Amino acid sequence: MNPVAVFALLTMLGLLFIGGIILSFKLRGIAW
After folding, report:
1. pLDDT tens-digit readout, 3-30
2. CA 26 – CA 23 distance, rounded (Å)
3. For the chain, domain boundaries
């Protein structure tokens, strides 16, 4: 595979993962 494509894919997955964690924390904050 293209190294650049792999790097871009990992970056996208990392951003989605971090975004999901932040969203879950915000939802918990609202729930509390």
Report:
1. 999 999 999 999 999 999 999 998 888 7
2. 5
3. 1-31
